[in-house]
Amino acid sequence: MQTLRTTNLYSNELSCPSCIGKIEGRLHALAGVEQASVHTTTGRIEVRHDPEAVSVADLVAAVGEAGYTAAPRGF
Amino acid sequence: MAGSMESTRMQRRWVQVAVAAILIAAGFALRAWSEPVYAGLLITAAAVAGTPIAVRAVRDLRIRRVGIEALVTIAAIGAVVIGEVWEAAAVTGLFALGGALEAMTMGRTRRALALLLELVPETATVRRDGAEVAVAPAEVGEGETVIVRPGHRIPVDGQVLLGRAAVDEQTVTGESMPVEKQPGSEVYAGTTAAGGVLEVRADRVGADTALGRIIHRVEEAQEHKVPAQRFLERFARWYTPGVVVLAVVAGLLTGDVRLALTLLVIACPGALVISIPISVVAGVGRGARRGILVKGGEHLEQAAKVTAVAFDKTGTLTEGRPEVAAVEPLDDGIEADELLRWAATVELGSEHPLATPIIERARAAGLGLPERPDAFVAHEGGGVQATVDGSEVLVGTPMLLSSAGIDVGPEASAALERHRSAGRTTVLLARGARVVGVIALADRVRDDAARAVADLARAGVRRRVMLTGDAAAVGHAVAEQVGIDEVHAELSPEDKLAVIRALQAEGERVAMFGDGVNDAPALATADVGIAVGATATPVAMETADVALTTGRLVRASEAIHLARRTVRIMRQNVTIALATVAVLLTGVLAGEVHMAGGMLVHQASVLAVILNALRLLRSSRNSHERNSHENEEPESATAGARRRVTDDEEAMLTS
Prior knowledge:
The complex is a heterodimer of chains A (about 80) and B (about 650).
Chain A lengths: L4 E6 L7 H11 L4 E7 L4 E6 L6 H10 L5 E2 L3
Chain B lengths: L1 H29 L4 H28 L5 H14 L3 H20 L7 H7 L5 E5 L2 E5 L9 E4 L8 E6 L2 E4 L1 H4 L5 E3 L4 E2 L4 E3 L3 E7 L5 H15 L6 H24 L2 H11 L2 H20 L2 E3 L2 H7 L4 E5 H5 E12 L6 H12 L7 H10 L9 E5 L5 E5 L2 E6 L1 H6 L5 H13 L3 E7 L2 E12 L3 H10 L4 E5 L4 H11 L3 E3 L4 H13 L4 E5 L5 H6 L2 E5 L5 H6 L2 E3 L6 H35 L5 H20 L24 H16 L1
Parallel strand pairs in B: 11-18, 11-20, 18-19, 20-21, 21-22
Antiparallel strand pairs in B: 1-2, 1-3, 3-9, 4-7, 4-9, 5-6, 5-8, 10-22, 12-17, 13-14, 14-15, 15-16, 16-17
């Protein structure tokens, strides 16, 4: 059992409910992502993942493939 | 960005309304020339205005929600089927107009989070291997040493290792007075240091800091806040199926399809679909002219139900900045003015945040101050010293004087204790190594705070609570002055949120009044968050549902009264619309009413609800507005009404 951690990515391009499914689908398809949820009101993409198997950069790339620019945020 | 997207969506709504209106006008103009052209143009108008409505109706039905859109769609189609093209165009056109009006008053995208993030400094200066490097605040490692220069924001939560400074912590703790920091003190990310360089050990970074948690709480509140179900939605849930059932039953009983369709059309009058949006727009417009900025019609409905109010103290009930409250000589030979002049002269050289109020008070009293003090020395930790009238004067905290080897003495200690229990901050003056006086500073209570609280009590708000990050003594001192009996003190931003939740769990509808970053989670969680302007931080303004832009607290009860009036007029309008429907339905079923006459009654009822809503633009008769003692141009109740509508429309369109 690896340690999972939560990473928050932010995107200001989330406006429609349809992007939720697209982004969550892409993230869930990654090995090492246990849970992904998209909050359109705040533009937050919350991901529980195994940092050994899938890095923050991988997550950003996956969201990018869905067609949205996102970035991790320190605060 | 979301804002521009919203405005294009809004433009599209208005374009649809305008196109439908032009088509309807063209249809009537050409009616004499060709009936089919008239019918074609009006059906086109109904399609232009009605298509988005039908799309929404279908989307709602998919998630098993029956909205007013469904009723409008059915009625419009029914009207076309029975050949009442004007009614189809009218009901869809009015609903589209109502929607466009409502969109003007709908909650805009909030920028609260972006503004919260601006409190995080761009970079943090960290000492690594003996050299200073600039890194992103979130990249600082736990236990690393961060260097904070005066005037800069602190990038992490941690403990001061070295240096002394006065730190303005209002963003995180809500404390109005700057806090003296020395080795061993805790400091917070997002607060600003003044007067000295600090070396801080990073204990918590990024999302783990107090500011990080505030940001996270506001985020969660915004994500989980279920939009309040608007009156129209609640109403449509039973009205729409009711009407459909009635029409079906009538159709089956009589075998008359035309009658069934006529019932459907009659039951969905333009008055009903326009009555609520027009009331909301008028209510919001009225508020805007009174300095009550409502960020969405739904907040008016929420505000009308408020049973409990929670006030932040600093900057909401108080002015939010320290003022000299007392100048007390401890030596019979010294006048208070003289004491003040000495203190102000020394403070001229200081960058300490408490220097400003002392200097201001001396200038206001007309005491002559020099350009700059002679032989000025700033001591570690905010004490200052200079030569005034030939002798050395030292101004500083009691602790500082003790550490400078000056005996404070029983008389001064007693004075200090007296001021402290009244919730004041104190500085001592020493002249030639002898304590000669005390200056007490306090955050002054707003002139209108007591009246605002009393007005809310009179308006029937059951519970009035104070939430403060300050010490209990300070909280109770202010509460006593404004007439609040329930005080929760020494609260973190998360504690404030918890108090709001507890009130809600007891069944209260809570309005939270706040102004600071530390109020943001509570503002976002309350049923109605109200930012009190003038002192409000941009973060609070963005997080709140309502902003009192004049910063006058007496507007608080007025906002609640306006909300109640708006809801009252909303209900009256629905009643007018439904009464019209009832009369017409009875007429149709009795075979007395023909379509043409029925339509005329409909149009009259549309006019009636619009005129009724416009009453909101006048001052209320039992004026809660008039007794807020303001030098406003007196409003003539009737003459101005028409002209003012256009003012309001302009104000709303340009905002």
